[in-house]
Amino acid sequence: MAVAATTILASERVSAQDVESWTLTIDNATTQPVATGLVAVAQGDQVIILAEGAIRRVVDSGRYDAGWHGPAGQTRLRRVGQPVAADMPYGALIGGFTSDDTQFEHVGRIGSFGVEAAEVGQEFYVSLNMSDADLLGLEGAVTVTLVYVPTGSANTGEFILDDASPDKLPTGFFPATGDKFIVLPFGGVRPTFGSGNPNTGGWFGPGGRPQVTRAGQPLPDGPYGSLYGQVDTLSTPFYIGDGGCWSTQPIDIGQELTLLLNMPASDRATLSGGIVVNVIQVPVPSPAAEEDPRIDGFGSAGLQISPNPMVGGGVIRFSLPQPGPVRVRLADASGRWVRNVLDEESTAGPQELSWDGRDENGELLPAGVYFVQLSTVAGSKSGRIVITK
Q1: Rounded to the nearest 5 degrees, what angle is found at the Cα of 152, between the Cα atoms of 148 and 157?
Q2: What is the C-alpha to C-alpha distance for residues 71 and 54, in angstroms, rounded to an integer?
Q3: Are the C-beta atoms of 142 and 26 separated by less than 8 Å?
Q4: How many other C-beta atoms are found inside a 10 Å radius of the C-beta of residue 265?
Q5: Nearest to 132, CA basis, from 34, 23, 25
Q6: Is the link from the previous residue into 33 a cis peptide, with omega within 30 of 0?
Q7: Would 11 be classed as within a structural domain?
Q8: Spatial distance between the Cα atoms of 319 and 102, rounded to a whole number of angstroms
Q9: 3-class SS at 158?
């Protein structure tokens, strides 16, 4: 195909990216570090990581090697070959926007952080903080879910439940049809009443104390002091505990989400500490007005880009349902158009277009995330390209 030049308007922008998620499993057959497929698009976007599961080494060599532990790791153990040996729990989930696992930071069971400028265009990697030899002798597995939240694609809020909180803390979040909620709590509380029950002493987190039941707690059968949510004042509050993710139900639409601790008000007034709750409301994606499902290409999105990630260019494949004008162009992560790859009449059927990895001025594009847009008389489709060096 010949490439025809077209003036690119600076005011044009690609549409905002939707929330995306990935799930992977780390076990004794895994090669670390693990590339997750999550690539940072823009500074300020949010990354959320939820890990679950339990692992243990089959061959024990010390008193703390035995037994199971979760993604937070074994804090009392150090072993030769840990990627991050200093101040990092053995076997904990660690990760970073680099394949060098010695530079990873602690993720644990729950992590949430913003993308920094230097991380844009980089892929996120994860590992368990143990040697390859220990990983081979592992029993069990850790499942990791990663959620990428572009700026403006979700509503977020942080709330604190402590001794000054009302019975039900309003969040200002009102569910709409198809919305999803992600709740990430952390912190600890300690009631100071004395009851002679040894289980009531000490600190506990959002999961509460299942050994304790106190008169006046809103949910008598639920763990004492645990985190609950409620979206309809007539319905029973639901357990959130250490974290939760759910989709909006018809009865919830238009009702405000409230948060509460499962303890009587008199106990809550004696609390030391607090539970910090991060709430993320992910709206149901709205289909682009110009997008048409009749563009049926090689890939499920109407586009196939290979290789992806790529170094110095690649091939863009698509299929046209009818002849007519076709435009293929690329934008950077900020939405600025950087290259008009094709703008001409084309026949119907499968198409293949080579791109040299350069911008409109003939310069090689730097590493990062880019978006390719295919526009035809039938509609428009978009795909993502990752360029590495």
Answers
A1: 80
A2: 7
A3: yes
A4: 13
A5: 34
A6: yes
A7: no
A8: 44
A9: strand
Give pLDDT tens digits for 175-223.
877 788 888 888 899 998 655 555 556 889 999 998 888 899 999 999 9
- Rounded Cα gap, residues 379 and 288, in angstroms: 10
| Domain residue limits at 366 | 303-387
Tell whether 143 and 160 lie within a shared domain: no
Q: Are residues 95 and 179 in the same domain?
A: no
Q: What are the percentages of helix, strand and coil residues in the chain, rounded to 5?
A: 5, 40, 55
pLDDT higher at 236 or 64: 236
Whole-number Å distance between alpha carbons of 269 and 162: 8
Same domain, 145 and 207: no
Tens-place pLDDT, residues 130-163: 999 999 988 999 988 888 888 777 788 889 999 9
Q: Rounded to whole angstroms, how far apart are CA atoms 254 and 269?
A: 31
Question: Residue 199 domain-assigned?
Answer: yes
Among 128, 149, 170, which residue terminates a domain?
Answer: 149
Please give the order of strands across the beta sheet that includes 110-114: 20-26, 138-149, 46-57, 110-114
| Domain identity same for 326 and 273 | no
- How many domains is the chain partitioned into structurally? 3
For residue 115, what is the domain's CATH number? 2.60.120.430
Give the CA distances from residue 63 to residues 54, 55, 142, 162, in Å, rounded to whole numbers and listed in that order.
18, 16, 23, 38
Q: Looking at the structure, do residues 326 and 261 belong to the same domain, yes or no?
A: no
One domain for residues 143 and 84: yes
Do 281 and 181 touch, CB atoms closer than 8 A?
yes
In a domain, 15, yes or no: no
Question: Where is 265: in which H helix or E strand?
Answer: helix 265-268
Residue 134, H or E segment: helix 132-136
| pLDDT tens digits along 54-70 | 898 876 555 555 678 88
CA–CA gap between residue 77 and residue 85 (Å, rounded): 10
Alpha-carbon span 345 to 1, nearest angstrom: 10
Q: Which pTM value belongs to this model?
A: 0.57
Whether residues 372 and 251 fall in one domain: no
